[in-house]
Amino acid sequence: MAGSDDMIGLSIAEMRDGMSLGEFTALNLAEAHICAAKNVKELCGYVTETPDQAKEMAVASDARRAKNEVGALEGVPLAIKDLFCTKNVPTTAASQILSGFRPTYESSVTANLWRAGAVMTGKANMDEFAMGSSNMTSYFGPVQNPWRREGDEQAVAPGGSSGGSAALVAASAVPGAIGTDTGGSIRQPAAFCGVVGMKPTYGRCSRWGIIAFASSLDQAGPITRTVQDAAIMLSVMAGHDPKDSTSVDIAVPEYEAALTGSMRGLKVGIPSEYRVDGMPGEIEKLWAEGADWLLRSGAELVDISLPYTKYALPTYYIIAPAEASSNLARYDGVKYGLRLSNDDLETQYAKTRGTGFGAEVKRRIMIGTYVLSAGYYDAYYLRAQRVRRLIARDFEQAFEKVDVILTPTAPHEAFTLGDKMDDPVAMYLNDVFTVPASLAGLPAISVPSGLSANGLPLGLQLIAPAFGESMLFCAASSLESCAGFVPRPTIVAGPN
């Protein structure tokens, strides 16, 4: 029987094989990863840990295995972003305003995971209501990236908003986690933490039971250490859900079967608009290397243009806050969560919302309310919707010529924890490469592909046509193989 240290750092596929061979049990894995979480407490990766529930789920998993009832994720420990409602387990969206909220129901995505045999280790920290690119806006405190710059012990940001999920996976506290991606909230933290982060096509995974930020953009996805693990997780997470009107009734392929690694015959688009002012030379160099790797794997490189890309960020920061202002109107201290006054309703609303929401959430609610207000709706929101359609059309035309598109994931390496907090625009620019695919509803994946001069991870992004996840995984596995990225974070849950 393998020791607990031997189980830390295994991939999901390796855990699956190890349990199948009887090398360890689901309970062994759960106990090892409960201990692993204690070893990386300083990262503040969890909002809520669920050790007792993890053991109960693991015991049930071992009982099913004994009866030869084995799900695709049987016995695998996973962290769940605190945006997913989990029955009878605190779900706060990392916000004070939802303190004490315990859902009486399970989100569709997590229900899919539990049916496949997965085990929940806890709820991962995040930016409040998924609003942020650094994981600094959480009411429960900032998450630290397990990586450090060479020769520098200063904490760096894990990215956001799924920073807790990415940090826990990077530190080997869990082999996989789920996050949500609205404008890059899976892919950007994956790039900062040196892990794989995948955003499926909008509608591929159900949004039912996910606390809404921007309903036309939010999409659940996996964060893992390998492309294969991401494919395994998405096969379970995805699927039509009649409870979600945006869920698409299209069969879910067996994504793991797509991992051939062959790029022969595929055309890879290189968009000129993703070369932005001030982008470090090392990002440009890595992008060129990534293109060369795919070329040597049999792909054909094609220069393409996505002219409306330059409007993506301002378009996103009109549409997303507008939807957020509407979605977050429900938090008023009446039905659930924080209540700070029993006076008249207006006072209760003002006190509860004024205290319960953090500064970034309040900023976006105010922006959203402004752009939806009379006199500004046509000038801002309606115009942004038109530009969004033009951005989607750019991609549609590009995919008439190419199969996938290769870009950097983020315009720079992870920054020092706490930087950019006084400059919202500088913070928003973190999403400059990820937002376009979100606005178009396309699947995209970030693959760790190299290190900066400071020894921090850098990621490359691949984008595919709608519901082209199989082709995306194929290209990503090729990129992963060529990059040969070896993660060496400073803070890890097990032996380094």
CATH superfamily: Amidase signature (AS) domain
CATH topology, what is it called? Amidase signature (AS) enzymes
- Cα end-to-end separation: 21 Å
Structural class: alpha/beta
CATH class: Alpha Beta
Report the uncertain regions. none
Rg (CA only): 21 Å
Shape, principal axes of CA atoms: globular
Tally of domains: 1
> Total strand count, please?
11
Subunit organisation of the chains: single chain
* Largest sheet geometry: 11 strands, mixed
Name the beta content range: 5-15%
Supply the number of helical segments: 16
Mean pLDDT: 95
Q: What series of H and E elements makes up the topology? A: HHHEHEHEHEHEEHEHEHHHHEHHEEH
Q: What is the level-2 CATH architecture name?
A: Alpha-Beta Complex
Largest beta sheet: what is the strand line-up?
A: 1-3-2-4-6-5-10-11-9-7-8
Q: Could you please describe the fold and organization of this structure?
A:
- The chain has 496 residues and is of the alpha/beta class.
- The protein has one domain: Amidase signature (AS) enzymes.
- Helix content is 37%, strand content 12%.
- The chain has 16 helices and eleven strands.
- It has an eleven-stranded mixed β-sheet, sandwiched between helices.
- The protein is globular and about 65 Å long.
Question: Gist?
Answer:
By secondary structure, this protein is an alpha/beta fold. It has a single domain, classed as Amidase signature (AS) enzymes.
Task: List its traits.
496 residues, alpha/beta, Amidase signature (AS) enzymes, eleven-stranded mixed sheet, 16 helices, 37% helix, 12% strand, globular
